[in-house]
């Protein structure tokens, strides 16, 4: 199976109070803070998923990005959910939540609701639970977004038949700085501009 049979069927990202989907700005979501943006995005999509409000900031960022990524996208309807996986990376891991939990401990407070988010792969778990994805998933920590390595790893999963579709990308958050970029790789030929390769992903990432 050749990697050219796979394409980037959609991408989405959140950065600087903006939500981008397939190159266009989502205009009906406006906010001047991260928390305000997450609440506005959740409300604009009329989601009925109360667990969202218990998530830490990193998980909220990745979760809402995945909601926009998969919105009105039928490409996964015929794919076995055990063959849909996620490969995501960032720089700060779950450090933003780790520090919050540490500060709570220093005050003599041990909150299980906060502690559960002191691992970055909880973000993947939230997306998988929401969408019933059960395929191979992994979270990498790298100083910068290594698109080349991510493409190689996802191609390995796809070409070996372990996965038939994969969500990849970068979800970074630390204090007031954040940027998410997720894309969906599926079988198909949508033209050279959507072929699953490093150059195309870099162009999409730079639009966020």
Can you walk me through this structure?
- The chain has 208 residues and is α/β, with parallel strands linked by helices.
- The chain contains seven helices and seven strands, in the order βββααβαααβαββα.
- The chain has one domain: Peroxisomal Thiolase, Chain A, domain 1, CATH 3.40.47.10.
- Helix 1 (34-44) runs parallel beside helix 2 and helix 2 packs parallel to helix 5 (121-131).
- The protein has a seven-stranded mixed sheet with strand order 3-2-1-7-6-4-5, with helices on both faces.
- The chain is globular.
Name of the CATH first level: Alpha Beta
Question: What is the name of the CATH architecture?
Answer: 3-Layer(aba) Sandwich
How would you describe the shape? Answer: globular
Q: Please bin the fraction of helical residues.
A: 25-40%
The helix-and-strand class reads: alpha/beta
Largest sheet: 7 strands, mixed
Intertermini distance? 31 Å
- Number of DSSP strand runs: 7
Rg, alpha carbons: 17 Å
Domains, number: 1
Give the rounded overall mean pLDDT. 93
Strand order of the largest sheet: 3-2-1-7-6-4-5
Low-pLDDT windows of residues:
none
Order of helices and strands: EEEHHEHHHEHEEH
Strand percentage: 15-25%
Write the CATH fold name. Peroxisomal Thiolase, Chain A, domain 1
CATH superfamily: Thiolase/Chalcone synthase
What is the count of DSSP helices, taking H or I runs of 4+ residues?
A: 7
């Amino acid at each position: 199976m050749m990697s050219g049979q796979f394409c980037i069927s959609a991408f989405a990202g959140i950065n600087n109070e903006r939500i981008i989907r397939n190159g266009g700005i989502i205009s009906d979501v406006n906010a001047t803070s991260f928390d305000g943006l997450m609440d506005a995005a959740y409300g604009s999509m009329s989601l009925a998923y109360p667990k969202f409000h218990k998530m830490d900031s990193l998980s909220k960022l990745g979760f809402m990005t995945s909601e926009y990524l998969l919105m009105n996208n039928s490409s996964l309807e015929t794919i076995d959910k055990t063959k849909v996986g996620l490969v995501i990376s960032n720089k700060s891991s779950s450090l933003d939540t780790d520090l919050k939990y540490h500060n709570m401990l220093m005050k003599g407070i041990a909150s299980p609701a906060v502690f559960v988010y002191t691992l970055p792969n909880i973000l993947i778990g939230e997306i998988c639970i929401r969408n019933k994805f059960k395929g191979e998933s992994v979270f990498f920590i790298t100083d910068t977004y290594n698109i080349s390595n991510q493409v190689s790893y996802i191609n390995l999963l796809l070409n070996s038949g372990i996965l038939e579709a994969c969500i990849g990308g970068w979800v970074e958050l630390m204090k007031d700085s954040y940027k998410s970029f997720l894309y969906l790789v599926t079988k198909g030929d949508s033209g050279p501009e959507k072929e699953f390769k490093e150059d195309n992903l870099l162009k999409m990432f730079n639009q966020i």
